[in-house]
Every structure is written in structure tokens, then in C-alpha cells.
Amino acid sequence: MKIHILGICGTFMGGIAALARAEGHEVSGSDENVYPPMSTLLESQGIEIQQGFHVEDIPADVDQVVVGNVMSRGKPVIEAMLDKGIPYTSGPQWLFENVLRDRWVLAVAGTHGKTTTASMLAWILEYAKMSPGFLIGGVPENFGVSARLGETPFFVVEADEYDTAFFDKRSKFVHYHPSTLVLNNLEYDHADIFPDLESIKTQFHHLMRMVPGKGLVVANADEPNLQDVLDKGCWTPVESFSSRSIDANWRVKLLEPSGQQFEVQFEGESLGVVNWSLMGQHNVSNALASIAAARHVGVPPQHAIAALNEFENVKRRMQLRGEVGGIRVYDDFAHHPTAIETTLSGLRKNVGNQKIVAILEPRSNTMRMGVHKAKLADSLQLADEVILYQPEGLAWDLDQVTEGLGDKAKVYSSVDKIVADMAETSSTGDQLLVMSNGGFDGIHDKLLSALESR
Fold first, then answer.
1. Which positions are annotated as binding ATP (predicted)?
2. Radius of gyration of the chain (CA)
3. Is-cis flag, bond preceding 337, omega within 30?
4. For 276-320, what is each residue's pLDDT tens digit?
5. Would you give the DSSP letter of residue 109?
6. Contact predicate 297/104, CB 8 Å
7. Distance, CA of 381 to CA of 361 (rounded, Å)
8. Residues of each annotated binding site for ATP
9. Binding-site residue set
10. Mind listing the domains of the chain with CATH numbers?
């Protein structure tokens, strides 16, 4: 079958391309942002990629076009596709029909932690010799790829609530039909898609309607919004988890404040200790969810704990990009006030009184719209210094955030100026935490180079 993918260089659609190629299909694609590492990864698999969205890039003998959710009516390539009657589908629908339909799907949903938890879960199954397939919105260091078919019925998927395509406004995750469902958390996000939190809860409720009675829902007891979803209707057994003091089936006893060592408990019984390099209570919570989900498919918790002790995290999730003269540069995907706060909290507990400089690019659609601007200053309080990058096209003024942070916050409109100032003022022991859901103009490598050459 000959497939062409519109929007192929996104992590999700790139994963679809890799899975389609692994199934033996002839795959091509196009995107406006064709650059490494996704472009080189796909090209290494024999997938031809075109820059931009042009009608002529769709092969004349194509069997099906897989349309990414970056596409919209009015784009010439979409109008031509519709006018010519070329068969098309969405990425999530293609995934279900070609990969997931006859498999045991373990889906990880929630506002935060989907990528990390799905990566943990896939690694636990791999460690248990279960060779799962997976499609994850990031690159787990233990695997080095974001998607693979696997060799057994088990398939782990990051279940995103974002909409599916221009012709299907349901959330992506309603296509996946999981037997094991992790509900990590639920907050308001994706303001470009959802008018309010209740509309997101409705999509989660639709997802709940698809989990079979013999399945399992693993739900975070620390999240009241998830309880609202369960109260709307649940026809599946539920196991709860809590990384705090809330009563739940799965709990922890922190042995280090940073979250780098903790005891796992199920129904009050100690099952073992996770001792790893990850930081933060949010990652403790992610670990509990992955252990519980893996148990549902037959992995003993003790084996899951042993696997997590060898878990290497995900690229761009508190990833240490380098250290120069005792100055550390981290890369993190945080782009929501809650994620920013929890990331800073984990780092603070790990480094104590050492100076933390938070360097933030408000790049997500929701951030660019200013939906979370009232919460942003509070989420950054644990940093000693805050650098805010004001990109072109931001719908609001970042000076509104600095008012809540006082003298420790500055707004920049130039990445090179940020790099120059950090190179001049940073000293041994400083932690430079870069947060963005985009490339941030390569600021991480620029910082390390500037620190090396000063």
C-alpha cells in the first residue's frame, strides 16, 4: 500500500510513518518543518520527505493520505485532496485500524506526564521480556526511537486529548480502545481546542466508555478532576494511586525528598524500593501508575521496580544537556504552569540552595494565547532567577509576569542576548533550566558553547 502523510515530522505522525514502514507499506510525506532529528530518522528508514505542503507531492498512485491535525481546510493540498476524491484518514484512525485493533492496548492519558509514564510502562514490559509495541510522543532513552511494532500483543500508546484532524474534532485517544488505561491528571489546557475544563472532561468520559469491563483503569487519587470523570460513568475496575498522603491502592513512602528513592506500597504492603536518577514527586506518581498498569498485564511489581531502577528517562524531560565549569544546562518540555512548578520543585529538592535560573519560552498555543498568564509567576517562584523569552506573535506582554516575580525576573526578545548574559553572569553550581515545547532556537547548545568559550 502506498501512503502519504501530511505533517509527517511531528513526533506522533513520524511514529505513524515508522510503524507503516515497518508493516511493509511504501511511505512518503511532507511537512513545513523538515529538520533533524525526525527528518533524518525517517529518511534512514527509506521514507521520502518533501518540504512544504504541495499538491504535486502527493503521489499520483497513492492509496491513502494520512492527515495530521496541523492541516486545515483552505490549504491547497487539502482542497485538492478533497476535490480529487483521494482516500484519506487521520493518524489515530490509521493507528487503530492497522496496528491496535487486535492488540492489548495500554494507554496513558492526562494533561501532564503522558510521555514519561508511557515510556516507563513500555520499558517495564521490555524488561519483562514482553517486547511491546509502542507509540510515544518523545524518545525514551532506553529505546532510542519513539515508535515500534513490537513482537507481542501488547502495545503502549501515549493517549493525547488533542483533537484528531480537521474532519474529526474528537480527541485522539477515543480511537485507541484501551484495555488498560492510565489517568494521570486533568487540568485545563489546549485553549485553542477546548473552551473550558468541562469540555475536556467530556472527552475523557467518552474515552472511559470504551474501556471494557474486564479491563483496568489506573487513576490518580490526588486529582479531583479525574474523580469527576469517574463519577460521570465507569464500567471498569479502578485501581487508585497517590504519591501524597491520600488513601489509595498504590502509595509510596519517600526515602529522599527529591523523589530519587522511594518505597512502593500496594494495599499497605511494601513491594520494594525504586532508586533512580529522576527527580520530583510527579515522576514518583508516574512510576506508581506504570507499575500498576504493568501488573495488569502480568508483570510482578518487584520486576517493574527493578526495571525502573534502570530507566533512563526521555529526551527533553529534565535532560542534562551538558555541564561546563560546574554549570549545568537542562532541557525540559514543561509548558504549563503545573508542569513548570513540579519540574522546579524536583530540581530544588535535588540541588538544595544552589542557584536555579529558569529560562522559559511560552511557546504552546495555550501559552501564546495568555490563558495561563495569571498562574505563571507563582509557578516560577522556586527559581532564583527567571528569564522570560518574548517571541514574535505572543498575544500578551510578559511584563505582566515579571510584576509577580520582582527583581529576579527579566524579559528578553533575543535568544542570543539571553545566551550572552548567562555566559557572563553564571558561576559554578548554577543550574540553568531551559523550558519549552519547541526547539527554542537551539539555546541549549548555544549556552554550552558560550560557557566553554568564555
1. 110-116
2. 22
3. no
4. 988 888 899 999 999 999 999 999 999 999 999 999 877 777 788
5. E
6. yes
7. 16
8. 110-116
9. 110-116
10. 2-90 (3.40.50.720), 102-308 (3.40.1190.10), 319-453 (3.90.190.20)
